Amino acid sequence: MLVGSEVKSLRAGLVSIEEAYGRVEEGEVWLVAADIQEYKNANAWNHEPKRRRKLLLHRREILKFANQAYEKNFTLVPLKMYFKEGRAKVLLGICRGKKNYDKRESIKKGDMQRDIDRAMRRGR
Hints:
This protein has helices at 4-11, 59-71, 100-123, and strands at residues 15-16, 21-25, 28-32, 35-36, 53-55, 75-84, 87-95. With 124 residues, it is of the alpha+beta class. It has a single domain (4-96), classed as Small protein B (Small Protein B, Chain: A, Beta Barrel). Keywords: Cytoplasm, RNA-binding. InterPro entries: SmpB (IPR023620), SsrA-bd_prot (IPR000037).
């Protein structure tokens, strides 16, 4: 459920779903942490950029995969946002979060890459 200034921002491409995720609460699906920037021409009727947005799904869709994700402790991840027949759509995927040992490996790789970059800059 979007307000007018959010739709204008979406059409202008002022959206980021990098950190966004879906959450099932009381039989409804919410899009959390999606950043839709303010529309500059909306003035006083602008929206809050990172507010929670209710996703309109059919009941069978909620029962089919959203509850499955909730029960098995998976995460709903927005893969892309697009317009179809004048309506804003969100493509959701189900994924499993990283385990602690996976996170440690990612941090270690990032640290090594940072050290390599620093050494390369010093050598120039």
